Amino acid sequence: MNAATPPKRALFNWLEGALAIGAVLLVLGPLFWAYAALYERTADGFTPLVALRFALALPPLVMFGLSFSLRGALPEEVGFALRVTTLGLTFWSAFEALFDLLAPHEASDWLELLFMSLVTCGLLAHLAASVRSVQRAQQRARDAAERDPLTGLFNRRGIEHHYAALPPKTPLTVMMLDLNGLKRLNDLGGHSEGDAHLRLVAQTLQAHLPRALLGRWGGDEFVALLPHCTAQETRARLLKVEGVLQRHTGPHPFAAGWVETRSGEPLGRAVALADARMYEQKEAQQQEQLRLTGERVAFGAEAFAARILHLERPEEVIGVGLATARTLLGFDTALYFERRGEAFELRAADGYRAEELPRNGQLHTLHKGRGVSGQVLQRGAAVWESDYPSSPLALPEYVAAGVKSLISVPVRDRGAIVGVFSLVMLSTWKAITPAARSVLEGVALRLGHALEHRRVLGEVRATLEGGLLALGVALEARDLETAGHTQRVVEGAERLARALGLPAELTEALRFGAYLHDIGKLAVPDAVLLKPGKLTPEEWEVMKLHSSKGFDIASKLPTLHPEVLNVIRHHHERWDGGGYPDGLAGRAIPLVARIFAVCDVYDALTSARPYKPAWSPAAARRELLAQAGRQFDPEVVRAFLALPDPPDTTPRAAPPAHRTAPLRTPEAAPP
């Protein structure tokens, strides 16, 4: 029965079928009774019996016609079984009479038995096949009723059914996912584009959530039931799904919310909670968009530039820009060519057959003035061809590769063309609209800004780092440090940071902090800083103030990363809590300060000072190992000792003999 059949109509059909079957049985019962009675009464007469058997072939024929008349009221399988039965009875009576006339009595009995056996086997085989057919049809009907025909996932009914079938108290996470921009895809590319995106989302969810019960809840909403999966695990898997879909749609391909529950709890409650959290995330995405663009823009061609405003790294602009522009505008392939000397070489490709195009050596290089795309380099403006093969500038290798439509725009940095974006249509011809040109020009403009930002930022950082190095060298000269101490600790700290896997941002902060770590000694009086011999306890307390004083001085520099200040303030803290200025211990000490402390002491130990000779690298390493867990973080020490010796492992020259460095502690221990 179809799931959509109204209950009253289904009951009426069932009653109608039952009455029809009852009517058939009422006819067959008396018929067989009469058959048996007449057979007994004519057992002594052979000829009347033959006539009777021919006559008895008539009622089954009547029943055969009756079964046809009941086809509208009975299931097809029941009607077919009735027809086979009545035909069998008809043939049985007729053949039995014929066998009695033509064959001896015993032979006719065997022939009758054989015939009835064949009829019975055929009837049973048909009934078995009918049962299997009905079961398969019912299963298909159930599947069809519980599946979304577009994506192949469960629909709402299927999700509810399988949720109810879970073992009681099974822990699970219910996740709701709402797609962003589906209406935009439908508006720009038609419903076929939107349907293709829905199928892509379904396939991506199936690939990254293989054990989940997945369903399309309706429209652009999906639901996932993840048994024995925590919210944290759900988030990790969802990040992978987001990463895949971002390549096709750009940032924020969906909003999602999830909640942990147990089977047996009302599914509607879990869905409502997950839905609420999903809309919270959607609101946060809209607020972010509002912050970036100044208005709530629609995801359309006119607003495409606003979508990529928050992308700062050129690699992000290229990756997201290619994929999003291609998907938004419905092209097969997106390409980015980057300047390499006098030519422009293919750097990135996205979409259909993107990997095949570069295999042809003629397709992965642009030359000024050659072909349609080469005109970009000559004109310095966008060029396009909706019918590429018919263009007088079409290149034979592009035509052979199947290029039918193409648009290319230049990317500029400081006025010079440094790259070219191209969108290519291979499967069919496509009109190059002003909206398409606007979108691709927006990507090119954003990439140009990102390249300029990277270049300017690099120049500023180089200038800043040069100034910090000069300041560090001046500080070490005033403090009578060994020549080159600042540069060595900067390089050592950077090597150790890379070994520990620090992000680039923290590594840069550590490097800047190494340049400025002793800036607080500007506030230490010369009488203390340059005093020959042992410091008094009072003078030592003044010397220890250089960490906090340096923090105060550096805090007035607004562009410094907070981790730079952590290096300056905390590089004299000890793992056991006996350091200064704050007496921090263990992991309470910022990691950048723990890293720098090891590098600083190692360089001090291996450098010659007026009050001590230089230690050998091996001796210095043994001292670091001895202080692991006391003065230094043991993990940082292990990472440092695993590094190969730096290129400069010779003892450093001490400052001139007439300048005596102060001792760092009242006990004259090496720093």
Provide an overview of this structure.
The protein is of the alpha+beta class. It folds into four domains: about 5-145, no CATH class; about 155-295, Alpha-Beta Plaits (2-Layer Sandwich); about 305-450, Beta-Lactamase (2-Layer Sandwich); about 480-640, Orthogonal Bundle (Hypothetical protein af1432), CATH 1.10.3210.10. About 55% of the residues lie in helices and about 10% in strands. The chain has helices spanning about 5-40, 45-55, 60-70, 75-100, 105-145, 155-165, 180-190, 190-210, 230-250, 265-295, 305, 315-330, 370-380, 395-400, 435-480, 485-500, 505-515, 525-530, 535-545, 545-555, 560-570, 590-605, 615-625, 635-640; strands spanning about 170-180, 215-220, 220-225, 255-260, 335-340, 345-350, 365, 385, 405-415, 415-425. A hairpin with a 2-residue loop joins strand 5 and strand 6 (about 345-350). The radius of gyration is 43 Å and the shape is flat. Keywords: Membrane, Transmembrane, Transmembrane helix.
